[in-house]
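Troubleshooting: if your tokenizer reports a length mismatch, compare against these two reference records.
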Amino acid sequence: MALFHPFLSRYSSSLLTSSAQPLKLVPVARRPPLNVVPTRKIKCGAVADIKPAAALDDDEDHKVLLLPSSEQERRGERIVADYDWTEEWYPLYLTQDIPEDAPLGLTVFDKQLVLYRDANGVLQCYQDRCPHRLAKLSEGQLVDGRLECLYHGWQFEGAGKCVKIPQLPADAKIPRSACVKTYEVRDSQGVVWVWMSHKTPPNPAKLPWFENFDRPGFQDTSTTHELPYDHSILLENLMDPAHVPISHDRTDWSAKREDAQPLRFEVIERTDRGFAGWWGKTISDQSASASSFLRFEAPCSLQNNREIVDDKTGETHYFSGLFLCRPTGQGKSMLIVRFGGTKRSPLAKLFPKWYFHQNAGKVFEQDMGFLSSQNEILMKEKVPTKNLYLNLKSSDTWVAEYRKWMDKVGHGMPYHFGHSTISLPKEPAVVEHAPAGLVAGVSASMPAKGGIGTMHAPNLANRYFRHVVHCKGCRNVVKAFQAWKNALSAIAVASTALAILISGRQWKALLLLSAAVCSGGAYACSAAVALNTTNFIRTHRRL
């Protein structure tokens, strides 16, 4: 699981290398640091280990709670940065997973987009709305490289120009207004990014670039997950190493609840576009082996990096956990996970990629109940996080830094929950109802949806619709296992029938053995399908 969570590998390096000594990274400062946002302390008593105890006094509070980190914060002054959420590049999709033969509907906050490849293989991105009667273009189809609305057959190409309206007379010209809004997209390092502003030209300098992913020999395992909670809560979760040994206890070989301990954090950079710093496994251990380097950068990129030097060869190996969290609406987000390095463990090579993908799904499902309820409480309480969170110095530094950064830039977002400020969505979320019955069965089997015809209405509580529909590799694996299961089941039935009809003992035994083997194979294929499509169910146990 170290391949899929930014912090699981901190508790076990078995997937990285067996003979290596980690060395300290040298971070590259990008902008002069700025002070963080003001806050105020909430006085509160706490009881530890369910033992009778007096409330913590102020001195004890200072020892364990995160307090104002600057003079401006202590004076209650607020720093506001110039920020416009549309003037940013947002991660849309993994390039490898974009369908070749169908349009793809995506969202950034409340803006609906449609992405497709034209006849020349060039990526085009439009507003997901036909100018005729507002039908979704993502529900359409590709005809000779043009995007066709399936409501009335209007076709669009290139810069959003309408090139065909079947209902127009032969001598009539297509109205100039029959066009769609376009968005600039770029394919960079295996990810498609979109620039959301129509007022400001795309800024290439803001397009994220991740150095480790461009190093010779770097290999990564990438996967996409749609999740039922706000992207800010998702980012909080990904930059929180303290929860890993508890929430993901025994998920695999890299997380154990007995490893839960105080952590140390050192913020070395604060800018209008994010923050960065070191974090370590223990407070007392100041060695390089206890340090990883974390960087958050606007609007939604998080990376956790390490360098490890092989003590036998002296070669430096680079490892990165990259997390691209796209806001997809109120209470929804889409995450692109990329974890890799310049060296892979031989043990990791024994497992197929789909195994790591489903294991990543299990990790997110373990946190889903907590994060969904957290999302609900934030929306219900309608107050900044400083009035709700009890942040500890030894576990929650990155969470506090992120919410304070949102204080600076939240005024330029559709909505936000900051440490000291809050702005609620101006409009309530719109819930789209999926089709049911035969129509849904056909729709779910379309290439862009990735369905296999047996699962219908999209549901973010379902692993199939959270991940498999977004992953070409896992879709193909599920379909292949389904086909093998059906074939082996048919062979098992036929072999059993022949064994009943035939009289020779040797042939009867051979056919029954064949039926047993095929039945076992069909069961294994069914288990593999379930592994890719069935949610993890947490089993509570008394410790």
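Reference record two:
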Amino acid sequence: MPGNKYNEDSKVPNTRVGRLLRERELRRNNRVHSFLDGNDVNRGIEIADHDLSNNSYVERYLEGAVQALSEGWERPDVRPTKQRLLVVANRLPVSAVRRREDSWSLEISAGGLVSALLGVKEFEARWIGWAGVNVPDEAGQRSLTKALAEKRCIPVFLDEEIVHQYYNGYCNNILWPLFHYLGLPQEDRLATTRSFQSQFTAYKKANQMFADVVNKHYEDGDVVWCHDYHLMFLPKCLKDCNSKMKVGWFLHTPFPSSEIHRTLPSRSELLRAVLAADLVGFHTYDYARHFVSACTRILGLEGTPEGVEDQGRLTRVAAFPIGIDSERFIHAVEVDHVQRRIKELKERFAGRKVMLGVDRLDMIKGIPQKILAFEKFLEENPHWHDKVVLLQIAVPTRTDVPEYQKLTSQVHEIVGRINGRFGTLTAVPIHHLDRSLDFHDLCALYSVTDVALVTSLRDGMNLVSYEFVACQDSKKGVLILSEFAGAAQSLGAGAILVNPWNITEVAAAIGQALNMPADEREKRHRHNFEHVTMHTAQQWAEFFVSELNDTVIEAQKRIRKVPPQIVISDAIRRYQESKNRLLILGFSGTLTAPVDSPGRRGDQIKEMELKLYPDLKGPLTMLCNDPNTTIVVLSGSPRTVLDDNFGDYNMWLAAENGMFLRCTRGVWMTTMPEHLNMDWVDSVKHVFEYFTERTPRSHFEHRETSLVWSYKYSDVEFGRLQARDMLQHLWTGPISNSSVDVVQGGRSVEVRAVGVTKGAAIDRILGEIVHGKSIGTPIDYVLSIGHFLGKDEDVYTFFEPELPPDSLGFSRTKGTDAIKLSVDKRVAPKIPSGRTSPTPHSKYNHIISTDKKLTSGSSKRVSPESTSWNVLDLKKENYFSCAVGRTRTNARYLLNSPDDVVAFLKELAEASSSSSSN
């Protein structure tokens, strides 16, 4: 594939960390060679005295593709040297203004994402997004597409209604406030609820429109990088179209705790859509942890140190703190134009310490809290009144929204009051500007600042802190940083961290910063400066794409270990061609009916009561009536549960992992060994009762041969902690010297006698079935379907023809244990079973000898009648072991859910019926 460095490379390390370290070294070497050779994707983009504006820099960056195109990047006869990166965001880095029908003026509108990616040189990047304008006619769309192509941009055309419902509605009124802990709009809750569904529908539709454009331009080997909360559905849309596409998703805002996210009506759909990505990235570990927790608590999935696992598929979740192009800011401060501006500002504020705040005028930026803290500082420190000034740059945003208009009025009111209270005729303590500054003015302002004040109430990262540090190499000012900004986890060691809600604490931090000794300022600045210059935007993007490439490699390795889906037509054809069939079916999670209840938790009472899938009654009856088919339901459930669900069918029931067995036309017998030690039961039961009392919504089940404690419906994390505590106690106390096995399920702990597994019981069950049915023809077809615990998956390997004898976890040749009939006190026939020598043909043939020994109340025995013959004549193509919903399995094949089991058995029953009629 183009640009994929991992393809056909035999020297790639086997471990993930090894591959990433190798990739890091390659990037460093390439960067050195590029510098020495004078080769640069963005050559010609130089920062000159007359060319410092952010827009001009971005424009030159985007136009860097023109020279690259002429050098063969797009020539069909030239193999691309760089991996293509499709950056998909809600907005393109340019805005379009229509001049004539086929003429457009493109205006640079660089945001945080564009600024972060300016220095990335490792990839051939293309931008896909909305151009910010409605273009209903095809002629206008064609001309705009052509104009944008020159700047490496590909437009997505959204109509006004979609933009209103998707962007202004769902993104800005629902997701953005929720992700910043502001909740849903309070003033018009009812209207929000009524319009929610239409907005969510528009959101999904818009995401599909983005996906259509990506699919149109996608080439094999491309990396698709989706950005932000506007495009949470995009990974699913892309994967539904092409499951092999490399898809990453990165969130630039905070991700809230699961308790906040669960209030969102579409919570589950959004999480599952994001999980379709191969790699999910966040600015900080806290946000990643919240996402994993939401998937665990809301979706019930398994959270791992690597990410989130769903039926064997792992979505990697990791933190990738974003950076800036620090060199650009460092060089900007040195040019003449900026130096003149720095000199002007120093003269303007001579004799006063300069404090600076640069924020969008937004609820989450904490501007009122910042100004109130500054007021408190002035109250408590009168000698600073004429020695310090706060410059607050508040960039207007969403000026048509009432909440933002109210915030603007509030800030102006506070500023006016403080200036009136502490100002003089010649100076005021606060200079407030409701506008943005151009790049060189901002760099000059950063350079003269003594204290930067970032008091975000909730912020994804906040790169203002990074920009300030990059411009402070000479001044070495102090950074006061909110602990609720993502940058606090990166710059926390060198900054003064504050809780912006605590006005007293922020005021004290201002005093500490203004009075900080020069040596301490030097140490703090050096730490932050090293971080900012080392963890750049380029490194951020390279790390993310490298991790994404490697995540795909890891996924491919896991897929190779996952069994394929069963080919139903093949299984049915083999079934029809066979003469004597054995079907072994699990119950829970295999034949059980789904409980129709809203939400993830489900209805605990209904789900605990296992019921046979109603649609299976007809197919099971047809299969049971086939004289050449024997069905065994093998379950861990008690006898009463199997009686209630299968009492009317002509089949064999094996309860409690095969420890109890009966034909539905007979009586229950036990297959337990005679000297099975159960002395441990009372002490384990006492432990289980204790933890059930301590763990809400947990329960335990006292079976005849085992004890099971389940925390499926409890809080996931608390349940796991309790289970870990329980296991530690069990191993050091009640079962420390007992012959028991502890079996851990997904959300359960089971204690059973040692050696009690479904596979271990099969030998005895098979012998009893042969005797009970008086089978005279060898079994030449076996179908085993179940959702079994790992401990019980030896049932699959028992019949496995391709396994050598010594690879099994138990012996298939040992004599059957004595069987005790528990109902009429008869002694069960001893059924020693053996196997011929493991030749290629006979290694899967079981030879069963039966000695009928019956008593009728006296000690006198009848003469033994002995028979010996091959019970199994099973070829590998006639054996179908199938796990339901478990990809980590010893089974040969997979079925995704009980619904698939139902569909399979229906087809099998129809085939059985047609074969019988023929």
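Descriptive notes for reference record two:
- The mean pLDDT is 81.
- The longest strand covers residues 83-91.
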